[in-house]
Specification:
Structural class: mainly alpha
Number of helices: 12
Oligomer: single chain
Strand order of the largest sheet: 1-2
Radius of gyration: 22 Å
Length: 271
């Protein structure tokens, strides 16, 4: 997403993350080759150790097949940081301000979709509550088994959504409690999230020792007219468990509690 509310580095990172999502083996080196840059230079650009000219920005925008408006935003973001004169940087900043009602108006909606859709966003929030937490993307990525770039983008996204903030130079949660209202959550985002969580559960049952996990299932004959009632009981259980665990001031891990309720006999068409 090319938005004047992002930095050009975040936009490049997002482009890399998209490719990484499609192919987990995709490397920064492969991305650099695609962009026509030395891999070390791309790494330095993403880590703010190296700048970029407006001409190079235009070349990258063409490689990424940006529209005319997206190219204009991307190049202006580069000019805002790297124009040779202060007047040039100020002019770029003013231009970006005038563009704020364009693609950026959907930024928070897109951020919310990605946060709900990507399984690791809320675990990052919970990680900040654990002992020994380190706020660097590299540490977060290693702890959750995601790339440094994915962790970096997720942290920035969570900050924009108001779920994380910087306090006394530390990354901390902004809200004590959060829950995604089912009616307000895009269906595809929910489906993406639960698909990923089920995949993580499959990994855990194969790789984690018994004393670090618990998988159980109850096979029950029920009156299907009670489904709404059962869902309410499950919802109450989750909230009570959350409140109980919140009382501990010594947290060292982030776990997922997943309660599943589904009909084993029927076959339904996916909406």
């Amino acid at each position: 997403m090319v938005s004047p509310k992002l930095t050009y580095r975040e936009i490049i990172k997002q482009e890399f993350a998209k490719r990484l999502k499609r192919n987990p083996r995709y490397s920064l080196r492969a991305f650099a080759i695609f962009l026509g840059l030395p891999s070390a230079q791309l790494s330095d650009i993403l880590n703010a150790k190296y700048g970029m000219s407006a001409q190079k920005a235009a070349t990258l925008a063409k490689k990424l097949e940006y529209s005319e408006q997206e190219t204009e935003i991307f190049c202006t973001l580069v000019e805002k940081e790297h124009a040779r004169s202060k007047a040039g940087r100020d002019a770029a900043a003013r231009k970006l301000e005038s563009l704020r009602d364009g693609p950026s108006r959907h930024l928070l909606e897109d951020d919310a979709f990605e946060a709900i859709s990507g399984w690791y966003h809320f675990p990052i929030v919970e990680l900040t509550r654990t002992e020994g937490f380190v706020g660097s993307p590299a540490w977060i990525g290693k702890r959750l088994g995601i790339s440094t770039i994915e962790a970096d983008l997720a942290v920035e996204r969570l900050k924009r959504l108001g779920l994380l903030k910087i306090e006394n130079e530390k990354l901390v949660p902004s809200r004590e409690f959060y829950e995604s209202p089912r009616q307000a959550t895009p269906f595809q985002a929910r489906r993406n999230f639960h698909t990923q969580i089920l995949s993580k559960a499959g990994e855990a049952i194969m790789t984690q020792p018994l004393d670090r996990r618990d998988f159980s299932a109850a096979i029950l004959a029920i009156d299907s007219r009670q489904i709404s009632e059962i869902r309410e009981i499950i919802s109450r259980f989750r909230k009570e468990l959350d409140q109980h665990l919140e009382r501990s001031d010594k947290k060292d891990s982030v776990y997922c509690v997943s309660v599943q309720l589904f009909d084993l006999g029927a076959s339904y068409e996916v909406a």
